[in-house]
Amino acid sequence: MTERAFVPGHVTGFFSAHPNDDPLVAGSRGAGLALSDGVQVAATPAEETTLAVNGERVEMAAVANVLDGFAVDARVECETVLPVSAGFGVSGACALGTALALDAHAPDHPDLTPRTENELVALAHAAEVEAGTGLGDVVGQARGGVPLRLEPGAPPHGRLDGLPARPEVEYVTFGGLDTAEILTGDTAALTRAGEAALDRLLDDPSAGTFMAASRTFAREAGLLTDRVATTIEDVQDAGGEAAMAMLGRTVFALGSGLSDAGYDARRCSVTSGARR
Ligand SMILES: Nc1ncnc2c1ncn2[C@@H]1O[C@H](COP(=O)(O)OP(=O)(O)OP(=O)(O)O)[C@@H](O)[C@H]1O
Ligand SMILES: CC(C)(CO)[C@@H](O)C(=O)[O-]
């Protein structure tokens, strides 16, 4: 029998990086959006481990690490409309979805013992941090809504809050950015900009300030690419709010911001946290 879980996509608007030898303590502070466009994960214990994303066999260290944590092999199938590496936290979603779906097999599987939600989130977070593909997506995806990461890390280390806003969101993607490469580089400027952005948002916790702080962050962190910058300007010129999704060549906008500016954008909404 196959068990399933849904994990929302997660776009980070701004973040600061907080490495630590303990992957449960390591993480990011920052803010993002949990999106109804996400990843549907099916997992079944199997003789041999295989992972497919949209029917294509792939390797994803975050998922492999989750399976190592359970000490079982499994067939994992992820279906998503989201592009990988474009700032939607797809690897975090696949990792958390695998943890949630595999745990559903615990009652009938001799090698699996049931875990709590915090334990599953912690397992997926550590798996993602050790893979180098994310720092804060998993905890944001588990919480849902508009997650604010006040302190880095998995439960019980991290601390989350959220904005009560539940906006509609549009996005366009022009390509990927290598998250692992950026996170292993010099993150000092990025982290300074991310901390300033979080202070600004906590002073005025609104969707508009989230978007403005995210724009300032992308510029100060030196992450803006030309096409992304032009698109954000186009949306603002048309009276909308847009920012760059970390870490990808992706622009997200509130409401119909991108289509109002003439872009062929995908529309989704902010949604609640991962569920099976
Ligand atoms: N088609 C693919 N393109 C890119 N990466 C892939 C692909 N298939 C599997 N992978 C693996 O998926 C992971 C992608 O992680 P990455 O952090 O770049 O993207 P992401 O999880 O979508 O997050 P981000 O929000 O940072 O863009 C890597 O482990 C990579 O090896
Ligand atoms: C590092 C990151 C931007 C990669 O998507 C994300 O995991 C985050 O916000 O910590």
Automatic annotation (TrEMBL):
Keyword Repeat part of the UniProt annotation: no
Enzyme class: transferase
Domain (GHMP kinase N-terminal): residue spans on this chain: 68-145
GO BP term, pick one: coenzyme A biosynthetic process
One Pfam family in the UniProt entry: GHMP_kinases_N
Enzyme Commission code: 2.7.1.169
Transferase keyword on record: yes
Highest rank taxon of the organism: Archaea
Pathway listed: Cofactor biosynthesis; coenzyme A biosynthesis
Keywords assigned by UniProt, alphabetized: ATP-binding, Coenzyme A biosynthesis, Kinase, Nucleotide-binding, Transferase
Gene3D superfamilies the record matches: 3.30.230.10
Reactions accelerated catalytically: (R)-pantoate + ATP = (R)-4-phosphopantoate + ADP + H(+)
InterPro entries: GHMP_kinase_N_dom (IPR006204), PoK (IPR012043), Ribosomal_Su5_D2-typ_SF (IPR020568), Ribsml_uS5_D2-typ_fold_subgr (IPR014721)
GO molecular function annotation: ATP binding; kinase activity
Known function: Phosphorylates (R)-pantoate to form (R)-4-phosphopantoate in the CoA biosynthesis pathway.
HAMAP family per the UniProt record, alphabetical: Pantoate_kinase (MF_02223)
The family this protein is said to belong to: Belongs to the GHMP kinase family. PoK subfamily.
Designated name of the protein: Pantoate kinase
Organism: Halomarina ordinaria
Lineage: Archaea, Methanobacteriati, Methanobacteriota, Stenosarchaea group, Halobacteria
